[in-house]
Amino acid sequence: MEDWDDDEFVSTGSGRFDRPTSASVWLGFIVVFISFCLLPESCFTWSEALWRTHQRLRREMLQLLRLSARGPVFKLLAGCLQPVLTLLAGCVRACSCGRLSSRCRPPHSLCAKASGPTEVMLIWTPLRLPNAFHDERYVIAWRPHSDSGEPLDLPWTEQLIDSNLYGTAQDGRWGTLVDGLPEAACLRVRLCSVNRLGRSKWSHEEVEVITLALLQEDGRPVQRPACARTRMVSAPGIQLCLQCSTPLSAKKCSRTHAKVACRPIFGPDCPHGPFCERCRNRVSEQALPCCVCRGLVDTWVEPAKPLQPAATSSVAALNSS
Ligand SMILES: [Zn+2]
Ligand SMILES: [Zn+2]
């Protein structure tokens, strides 16, 4: 009987294989095993035993994949492949000139920090779309408002933003510095995204900026000028969740206010809403469901009257000086 040498190459010079190596046997077995698991269930309707075997093998293969995904080898492979794929997507995005982009969606989590008497740092987060080749830029618009929050009949001044102050931040946030705003004015700043397919809607949040004068009444420059004041406000027609500040459109604001069982001790002026669906479910699941004012929630109702978009107390006053 001949010895079976696993490491021996068994291909002849003419390309004919005399004996399979153990590696090719294992490879063939794995291919057959994966092919068998990937076959649709409808192929085994004629045999219950075969169907059960197929289901069991498929479950075990999925479990094996799940465990492998947590292992160091898979993480190492993913760590090596991710930069390559990111670079490849960036090249395709640049070469396509935005032709592979999806339709823009409004950015969210807009916030602001004043950095001078007429300068504001804006920070926002783009909405992630399931398209690796999506490309977009942003338009910042501002215009004066009255101190009472009423819009003045003035056009918006727009500024195109195509570079991120944060560079390629891992969390995907964008930032830019808006300077040259009018002195001693109350302004509203809003944001949208834009690409070849057009603009998105405006952000659900707006920033109210109160800039300061650079000159004193006698015409001399202000010594050590303070920073402008900023606060977050909701866009017209948009309310924010009382608990998590998620923007809520008018359509989603029905039955989102809590009716408390008794008058709360803390926050007697609390409107008890609106709550987003997630917060409402979370509050309802509590043993003693409470509003943010600690009032015991009895039931959920529609608001007695449509609330005017108001300044958010939870995210407001990012910068008060
Ligand atoms: Zn919420
Ligand atoms: Zn309340």
Automatic annotation (TrEMBL):
Q: Describe the location of the Fibronectin type-III domain by residue ranges.
A: 106-214
CDD domains referenced in this protein's UniProt entry, alphabetically: FN3
Record InterPro entries: FN3_dom, FN3_sf, Ig-like_fold
Superkingdom of the organism of origin:
Eukaryota
**High-level lineage:** Eukaryota, Sar, Alveolata, Dinophyceae, Suessiales
Q: Which organism is it from?
A: Polarella glacialis
> PROSITE patterns, from UniProt?
FN3
Q: What is this protein called?
A: Fibronectin type-III domain-containing protein
Q: Which Gene3D superfamilies match?
A: Immunoglobulins
SUPFAM superfamilies, per the entry: Fibronectin type III
Give the UniProt keywords, A-Z. Membrane, Transmembrane, Transmembrane helix
Membrane-spanning residues: 25-51
